[in-house]
């Protein structure tokens, strides 16, 4: 319900209060005129124009101050209050390996003491493309906030000018004495200001500000996922490499067994069945090698994308020992309530609800009258208009008698809207309630993710211990079965069974040894660690800012200090 205001400040004003001598204002000095002293027309025009602008500016300033005083104290709609959320006091697992003390999770990947992993995380932070997209969305939200702030001030402030030729019909109403053809010259300035009497625009600023903070939280959430994905993919590559190493070793052992069976068959000590069984087991183990090699390549391709580069051979980046990162046996997780401030997705859900809460006030403001101040001032003259147009021409445009203006308040109130405005308020309210429930659900899912990761971390360690003992026993079984087979004390079936079981258990152990650090990575991701590495740094790299500035004037919006970070979390209990 914007109320349009055209403002054309008073350009002509003559002070003539008898018996005081007439005075004109020219520039910034005044000079008295005695009696019938002549005034040069140009000086006269400049004087009245200057005084008129000053007078109109004073009037508009007074009205603006009054408007701000009247509109600054009312904001319809609810003020956002952080929604309640169910959070347990302690984690379910009571294992001594799970510590509840406060801890710094900002660089959690360093617990693996793997320089290659550290380097990969740093590269991904600098080059990952989805992270750059999230950073650009922060700039978009910052510009949107600027638009919202701008709506608080006069919405229309524009200079105008036009020249038109006009032909009036002889048969037009009241056209008998009118000029049939004339030129019209106009130049002026228009202004319109819908006052924020009910807080519509201030609520809009609140919403845009919350959206800006939500975009920062979204960036942090992308960063948390990026760091954990890089670490998990790196562990996956090392696990595939270790599984391949184990498979190749078993191929070597089974090849030796096949040669023993062939020698004994050639000597007539056993039947051909032993040879075919040994060959079948060997070929089965060999068939796993292409699968593992394919897994390594696919994992490296995935890591390449995370690093912001085309899929390629990453051996230059993956140098060093090809071993699975060793996870510490203990992890410090703090308390569940700390998730509310640390996890970016929880902060984002809360801020999205805050932004929508302000939209309720924006919608409610439509229920009340919109109050505006409008005005216009300018100059107008004509040409070829004859006596009816004071025989004016273009050169008269800047004379004092060409000045025109109007200003004043206006009110608009859509009193008959058939429930559309109230229904829009209801729409905004239910959207807010949806986001409140989404926030509460995000808190619950965050707690579930931490609990799932903790139990996986603990149980995979136990599983690895059992499988390690199983592998040692399986190796001994293979040794004993081969000795007995060479001595003829047993048939080849015992060798076949023991070697097949060893292959299976060694592969399971290797997978589980990879699951231990992977589950620890999941713990740190669920705790919301890793986004802190961007503090004090730009959200987008310098080369992108340079490219954007070459296309568009960004002012100071690309500077880091123009984008605020979320406040430090403190417990509220």
What's the layout of helices and strands?
Blueprint: E1 22-26, E2 29-33, H1 41-71, E3 98-99, H2 115-127, H3 129-150, E4 156-167, E5 181-194, H4 200-266, H5 272-306, E6 331-332, H6 339-342, H7 344-364, E7 370-383, E8 403-412, H8 420-486, H9 492-527, H10 542-551
Parallel strand pairs: 3-6
Antiparallel strand pairs: 1-2, 4-5, 5-7, 7-8
Helix pairs in contact: 2-4, 3-4, 4-5, 4-7, 4-9, 5-9, 7-8, 8-9
Gist?
With 573 residues, this protein is an alpha+beta fold.
Keywords:
single chain; 573 residues; alpha+beta; Outer membrane efflux proteins (OEP); two-stranded antiparallel ribbon; 53% helix; disordered N terminus; disordered C terminus
CATH topology of the domain at 74-152 and 196-369 and 413-555: Outer membrane efflux proteins (OEP)
Strand residues, percent: 5-15%
**CATH architecture descriptor text of the domain at 74-152 and 196-369 and 413-555:** Up-down Bundle
Strand order of the largest sheet: 4-5-7-8
Alpha-beta classification: alpha+beta
List how many beta strands DSSP finds: 8
Contiguous uncertain segments of 5+ residues? 1-46, 568-573
| End-to-end separation | 45 Å
CATH secondary-structure class of the domain at 74-152 and 196-369 and 413-555: Mainly Alpha
Count of alpha/pi helices: 10
- Rg over alpha carbons: 40 Å
Average pLDDT rating: 83
Quick one: overall form? Answer: elongated
Helix content: 40-55%
> What are the secondary-structure elements, in order, as H or E?
EEHEHHEEHHEHHEEHHH
**CATH superfamily name of the domain at 74-152 and 196-369 and 413-555?**
Outer membrane efflux proteins (OEP)
> Main beta sheet: strand number and arrangement?
4 strands, antiparallel
